[in-house]
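re: that chain from earlier
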Amino acid sequence: MNYAQIVGWGYAVPSRVMTNLELEKMVDTTDEWIRSRTGIVERRIAGPKETTSSLGIRAAQHALQVADLSPSKLDLVIVATTSPDYPMPSSAAIVQDGIGATKAGAFDLNAACSGFVYALSVGSGLIASGQYENILIVGADTLSRWVDWTDRATCVLFGDGAGAFVLQKTDSPTGLRSCVLGSDGSGVNALLVPAGGTKSPISLEQIQNRQNFIKMKGPEVYRFAVNVMVQAARQALSAAEMSVDDIDLFIPHQANIRIIQSAMKALKIPPEKVFTNVQHYGNTSAASIPIALCEAIAEGRVHQGSHLALVGFGAGLSWGAAVLHWGVSTTSVPETWWKSMVRNVQTQEEALRLFALKAHRRLELAGLDAFRRLSNGHDA
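^ sequence. v structure.
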């Protein structure tokens, strides 16, 4: 039987830090108000040249280095995002090109803040089916681009970032033990960006009415989040035939510390078994859980044999919960000089291959254009 084992991980966040004190100068709010209602102290904001895909590329490169895997060995790239670089093409295609995964397919997956759990489920299923051996899953968002910086109800909540994991086929029974995915489309208006899609394309009127920014019904989302986190976690544990006591670490979506605390209290999970970093990053949407998992690994809270529970919720309204059995060592091994040299050579080879492909494509287009001009000349 095939299993999907996590063998590489990495994350990336912008260097720009926006504190609550800075927000005090922008909207009618205070540091104390934000901390007491959300637990957020600061968040990372993408710079002018940073995008969802550029953050995803950085995170993916870290994950591939940990996995000691050449990007040419990847079969598929899945990017969970709700804030792609463009309406089309996919951000996954840009990430695939950026890391040199020349043999991989690529697509985006949009389940908002639940996206990473969805991507983990899809990637694990494709490996379990025997279709693929190595899959990169990325959770990345730059929701600061969609934040209305005059709306204190939403602008204090969101930040930017990306997290990436490499899934690899193994016959060892590790990886995903269970997964629960859900959606309630009747709640679509509770959290959305009204304009920018095919229903309401961007127009001057939409921009003037600030419909191109995130709109949220806070109390409604709060109630939904607490209830669905509890429900989804219980269902995932039941499907894995495990109890709360069997889980070594719970990693919830980092949206609001009060939501996390309320849900964990209902599940009777002690605080020491819950990982939180919402105070540093705010809500990074699909990047939230993977960034938290990477930091938990770095802090020594995940070990070979650990059982983890991941729980997310988001726009849609969507939710997802997964139970993982961690199968590899998380001890950092210094990279030897020769491995570093080999990796650099492989990176350069992939860069040359991509350059050659792009050059070939340009030559083909130039040749086609010349042929058309010649044909038009003969017709005249």
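The mean pLDDT is 93.
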